[in-house]
Amino acid sequence: MKVLTDVTGTSLSLRTPPVRIVSLIPSITEILFALGLDQEVQGITRYCTQPPDKVKTKLRIGGEKDPDLSKVRELGPDLVIANMEENRREDVAALRSWGIPVYVTYPRTVRQGIEIVRELGALTGREARAEGLGNELEGHYREVLAETAKRSPVRVFCPIWRKPYMTINRDTYVHDMLRVTGGENVFGDRSERYPEITLDDVATRKPDVVLLPDEPYRFRRVHLGDFTPLKEIPAVRAGRIHLIDGKLISWYGPRIAAALRTLPGLFAGS
Question: What pTM was computed for the model?
Answer without folding.
Answer: 0.94
